[in-house]
DNA sequence: ACGATTTGACCGCA
DNA sequence: TGCGGTCAAATCGT
């Protein structure tokens, strides 16, 4: 273990900065349901310009943070760049973020329809393979995949490989990924993930992540944590045709474990301590509680603390690298 | 023997 | 109708 180096501090600083900006924006958006900035009756509300500034700060902070993760990686074989899904425009989610549950309806019929497949979250990573390590294939992520197909793609020099979760049948996990070697640079693989893991792999696998003070992870709380991420999405006012505007989603979801619930759970006004990172609560801890004053769509109060003197587990970085 | 990979066939969508 | 994505039988590796 080593103390945080400068880049790691910068990374966390950017993440915290982005989080704070998001919180401000969320608070303002939550307080101001009116889409008309000029007609707002709330004197404390931010102007549209200020909101845009905050949004810019959030996006900028996360972009910097991601860049830092990419450039400070120690993984000798690969280098990963994450791009948002150009269709949805969403900031990529982690492969381990949980959407849906194995017990939900669409998972009970033994498979997903093509429509439902299309609805699954999708994001792309660009993975560079270190030439001196050979071109044995794209980087390993923390998940176990099984190849189920390969196709020659029109206009592409290299075939595309199709993988699905090894536990598709046993655990009804419908995460898939596609791997396509870049035409321009054969050392770059584009890895497109679709769907999120609902299998047991979403917990840190023993071979990759040490399950130290084993966080108490209950499915429902995982779902709540995912809800949290969803609810932390900065919402812009609806447009005139009633369609939700573009939003910003938090990219950091994977190393996000709850380890202690107090006063029940999120759903009934309780609170849960969380930490980012897998080494223990001291890495980056926070208290998440529901704000029940907002009616049917609960707003989560997030209060994160980071102790700059605390040691940080390098698996956190590896995990971010592998999954973002 | 069992699980993973390969590969041609099939299907849905634009 | 062509293309991308998936299926499933055949094959391979341990």
TrEMBL record:
InterPro entries referenced in this protein's UniProt entry, alphabetically: WRKY_dom, WRKY_dom_sf, WRKY_plant
Protein keywords: DNA-binding, Nucleus, Transcription, Transcription regulation
GO molecular function: DNA-binding transcription factor activity; transcription cis-regulatory region binding
Annotated Gene Ontology cellular component terms: nucleus
Start and end residues of each WRKY domain: 134-197
Highest taxon of source: Eukaryota
Region (Disordered): 82-105, 198-218
One GO term of the biological process aspect: response to salicylic acid
Compartment(s): Nucleus
Family: Belongs to the WRKY group III family.
Name recorded for this polypeptide: Putative WRKY transcription factor 41
